[in-house]
Amino acid sequence: MSVLSLRFAILSLTLVCHQRILAQRQPGMVEKSGGGAYFSAEQYKIDRMRTQPGVNAQPAYKPTYEFEKPSREPHKDGSIWIGNFCRFRKPDDAQSRYHPTLSEWWYCYAKYPKDTTRLSDNFTGSGTIPWAADVQNSEGKTKCQAFLQRMPGYVADGLPFQYYDSLQRLSWFMNTCGSGDCYTEGRDHEFARGIRYYVKRKEGSENEYIKFAGQFVFSCGDDRVDFLINDKGKFKIDVIYDNWKTNHEVVETGRADNWASGEWNEVFITKDAWNMVRFFVNGEQVYNYTIPDMPIATRFTGLRLEMPYKWESKGLKYNVGEVIVESYPQWPKKN
After folding, report:
1. Which of 42, 256, 268, 308 could form a Cys-Cys staple with 280, CB 3.0–4.6 A?
2. Which residues contact 8 (CB under 8 A, 6 or more apart)?
3. How many angstroms separate the CA atoms of 232 and 207, rounded?
4. How many CB atoms lie within 10 A of CB 275?
């Protein structure tokens, strides 16, 4: 065999091996130049679309709305309604749960944006989510920044949940809070629009449910919903609290047929300008609901990924590949 023929044979064998590796590569995984791989949400969408051409992994946002405070007289409790939706409700105190420089009256003039801000983090060191900026004190910010610097060393086929949970606890970004002082830095915009989690079960029972806890805050109370799903694709919607009451209790169960057991899956939770909350699994909507008496000016949302009780003793391990936040833009600066 000539040298040229030998080189051609080696090249052909290399190409075949590379194609086999690509075929075996899990959705969303991108090889690093120095070895190893990391999870990419964009590559995940491409890979999913190749295998599921009918799945719309990017639900289109509905046309935006602009609101102005109506001139009609409010109800006896101070609330103002348009149709079957609450437009405004008088706060318990002037600055409760709002940015300290703004009252709830300001939020009645909220202009819902045409340009959604997108923040993301795949924990490899180039994320744009302001985890440390939302920590309330300098000592906490230092700890959070130091943890973020170590984060790339923990990534192996995604970030193990225990490290992601530590980041959640160090940062205020995924939390709601009871007073405006939580929003003094890094929170000129809020992320009530939506959040995408890419998760994958590594070990443990496929019957155990992980939980995406959503808390929608306004001045008179909290509305909460828990979306739980296991690695068989079975999901359930837990109790919805309406202003700390259960008069809007909703319980729903079902199965997300396009959930891929043992693989990367996308869970997307979004809230629109009329407070309709939607749940998507791998681009397909599985459930939605609207709370009509929560003011439609409400922006603040806390969305957290949580594990079931005693998950460590149960040997349950999930990895987080990437978090993508779709948020309202910053308030326009005054001239």
Report:
1. 268
2. none
3. 7
4. 22
